[in-house]
Write a structure and sequence with these properties.
about 725 residues; alpha+beta; disordered N terminus; Beta-galactosidase, Chain A, domain 5; GH92 mannosidase fold
């Protein structure tokens, strides 16, 4: 027993020097553990920006959408996954499990100890197997290094049929339909799996893999269920895989490399062979070098250790999804960029795309091109596009917002004419409303909205759909104006006022109406239907949607009785704790004090949310990260300005750092400085843009794109700065 304990200690202490002494720059400030618990649902394992390979520990059921759960036993390590999503799970494919002692495919289960996660790296000890597991990845290849304890038989099992399944015990949960694999004479294990289920749609999808170990095995075979089939080179089924056994004379550390493709086994093999002799440490170095090219676009000075960690971890999270499968689209082949896993634009149009527009416009353009390409082949711009299929629309036709914003900001590189036609279809052609029992749509707008000016109460999410459709119409009007179609622009500008068809002046809230134009019964400002039907509002209450009129805040303020009455309404929302940071519909609301000359209240609310709703704990996110939406909210708010998505300007908040330098793709730099900044000094006293006094609490994208310096002088009391400024007129 004593000898065994000593061996285990030695095994657990074998952390690479690069892990125990991370780089002195950005690397220490990325903590993949933040948000893995408490509903954040983010990946703890390694990936690269927008990569298909997103590795993660795969825990016993029930597990969350990432497949990970603190304190649960592990069933292996998967190569694919999604980060921060809700609903039913996806991916979790090609699960690898190291096993010591007796080979038994039915006993792939172990407690986990000594977990650690850093940028591009994950490690843990599987106590039942006396194995240390380490993960890293390149864009297309996952690396798993398993260090076995001494004096034990060594096996590695590859389950070709694993999925994130039974998240909510529904028939639509993920499952493997069938898998097929071959153990080749050269030691490569290759195959494919047909998978189905998960959030958004039930369309089957196929993933392909090619895998090998850096050490040749001494024996091999297949397994099906719990049965082992020694020497078997070909296997197929819905619960099957391969195993490899290694002799005592072979090294204790064995690395498995597994490449993934959405196109073919041959493409997966190509990715694997292209990695050549790259070992685990070299792959980790490449992973970090790739990440640093993205993360280094932002340099921060000042702030606390917690704030710096949250900033760079949030930036990391923002760049995980969607999945770049350019050149490997299995449905059609062309030269256009292609992305899977927009989970979904209803979340990401608000903060993720605006952040891309500033620091990563090339990626922004590629994503828009992919959306237009989907329109070309599928007939619609999707709100969600998951593993090659249009998925359920949550709100409006919000790809319209993404495209309108790019045009408003003067971002080039995509076909404006085709984008205009795609958005116009959303505005003019009613959706097919027959796809499910909940009266929802996959793409487009409800016909009733186009006919009556609102979605009636018998349709799910009728109020939230109406509000979002109205803003989508506004975006259509701006696109039409950009393209020179003035009369058409006026038509859709008028139609964007449909939002007020559901504004009840008696209550000051938006509420449902019947087809006959009567108000629905039983109004309550906190009404929320938590069933799958989302009656009246999608994932929200009248409070959460009370301020969703991004194109006409001035009109909304008038309907509430003017600036002071609207300010009181905002105060009521925060004092009464009706605001929620954990979901998207109202996350812009803290910045609306700018519209009534109370910028200091935005500073107070935003600083409070940054410090209380975000932390460096494992439950450090306010809710589902939603493909980086909540993370990018933190980034903008910590820098001190926030986008109104679909438009070209940003509202001023309260910066937490002394200095943020953004390296723009055009070679220029935009710098935000906060002089005399501290936790107490949250209020802007004076502001300067490129040395000239700035008396407005907003800046335009063009002012960022030209480069320059936005300088704030901070103090511990409200100064009245920008209290009488003119707010931007939406363009």
């Amino acid at each position: 027993m004593k000898r065994a304990c000593i061996s285990l200690v030695l095994l657990l202490s074998g952390v690479p020097a690069a892990m125990s002494n991370p780089d002195s720059g950005i690397v220490p400030f990325v903590d993949p553990r933040i948000g893995v618990n408490g509903g954040g649902n983010v990946l703890i394992g390694p990936c690269q920006p927008f990569s298909i390979v997103r590795m993660n520990p795969h825990m016993e059921k029930p597990h969350i959408t990432s497949g990970y759960k603190i304190g649960a036993r592990i069933t292996g390590f998967t190569v694919t996954g999604v980060s921060g999503t809700g609903g039913g799970g996806r991916y979790g494919n090609f699960c690898v499990y190291p096993q010591s002692g007796e080979l038994d495919p039915s006993k792939r289960l172990s407690e986990v100890a000594d977990e650690m996660a850093e940028l591009g790296y994950y490690a843990a000890n599987l106590t039942a197997e006396r194995v240390k597991a380490e993960l890293t990845s390149t864009e297309k290849v996952g690396y798993m290094r398993f260090t076995f304890g001494p004096q034990a038989a060594k096996h590695i099992l590859l389950d070709m049929t694993s999925v994130i399944d039974r998240f909510r015990s529904r028939p639509s949960d993920g499952r493997c339909v069938v898998a097929y694999g071959v153990m080749n004479d050269d030691g490569l294990i290759e195959g494919q799996g047909v998978f189905q289920g998960g959030w958004g749609h039930n369309k089957p999808y196929i993933l392909y893999f090619s895998a090998k170990t850096d050490v040749p095995c001494s024996a091999f075979g297949a397994f099906k269920g719990g049965e082992t089939l020694p020497g078997m080179r070909v296997i197929t089924g819905d619960n099957c895989g391969f195993y490899m056994t290694f002799s005592d004379s072979q090294p204790q550390a064995i690395t498995v490399k597994i490449a993934v493709s959405t196109l073919s086994v041959g493409k997966a093999r190509e990715h694997l062979l292209r990695s050549g002799d790259m070992d685990f440490r070299q792959a980790l170095e490449e992973n970090r070098a790739t990440w640093l090219k993205y993360l280094d676009r932002f340099r921060i000075e000042g702030g606390t250790q917690k704030q710096r960690t949250l900033f760079y971890t949030s930036l990391y999270r923002t760049l995980v999804m969607p999945t770049d499968v350019t050149g490997e689209n299995p449905q059609w082949q062309n030269s256009e960029p292609h992305f899977w896993d927009y989970y979904c634009i209803w979340d990401t149009f608000r903060t993720v795309f605006p952040l891309l527009s500033i620091a990563y416009p090339s990626q922004y353009v590629n994503m828009i091109r992919s959306l237009i390409d989907i329109y070309d082949h599928e007939g619609w711009l999707p709100d969600a596009w998951v593993v090659g299929g249009i998925a359920r629309q949550q709100g409006g036709t919000n790809a319209d917002v993404v495209i309108a914003e790019a045009m408003a900001k003067g971002i080039k590189g995509f076909d404006y004419d085709k984008a205009y036609l795609a958005v116009k279809k959303n505005a003019t052609v009613p959706a097919d409303e027959s796809w499910d029992n909940y009266q929802s749509v996959m793409a487009g707008k409800h016909a009733s909205y186009m006919e009556n000016g609102y979605v009636p109460a018998h349709r799910i999410s009728c109020v939230s759909h109406t509000l979002e459709y109205a803003y989508n119409d506004y975006c259509m009007s701006r696109i039409a104006a950009k393209m020179g179609h003035r009369e058409e622009a006026e038509v859709y500008a008028r139609r964007s006022m449909n939002c007020y068809n559901l504004f009840d002046s008696r209550t000051g809230f938006f509420w449902a109406k019947t087809e006959q134009g009567e108000w629905a019964e039983n109004f309550s400002p906190t009404f929320m239907d938590k069933s799958v039907t989302n009656r009246y509002y999608y994932e929200g209450t009248p409070w959460h949607y009370a301020m969703y009129v991004p194109h006409d805040f001035a009109g909304l303020i008038r309907r509430h009785g003017g600036a002071r009455a609207f300010e009181a309404k905002l105060d009521s929302m925060f004092i009464g704790k009706y605001y929620t940071q954990s979901n998207e519909p109202d996350i812009h609301v803290p910045y609306l004090y700018n519209y009534v000359g109370a910028q200091h209240r935005t500073a107070e609310v935003v600083r409070s949310l940054l410090s209380t709703r975000y932390s460096t704990r494992r439950a450090g996110l306010p809710g589902n990260d939603d493909s980086g939406c909540m993370s990018s909210w933190y980034i903008f708010s910590a820098m001190g300005f926030y986008p109104i998505a679909g438009q070209s300007f940003y509202l001023i908040g309260s910066p937490v750092f002394d200095k943020v330098t953004i390296a723009l793709e055009n070679g220029k730099k935009f710098i935000v400085q906060a002089v005399n900044n501290s936790e107490a000094n949250k209020y802007i006293q004076r502001a300067y843009l490129n040395g000239k006094a700035l008396d407005r609490s907003w800046i335009d994208h063009s002012e960022i794109a030209r480069g320059g310096v936005l300088r704030f002088e901070m103090g511990d009391k409200p100064s009245g700065w920008a209290s009488d400024c003119q707010m931007p007129i939406p363009m």
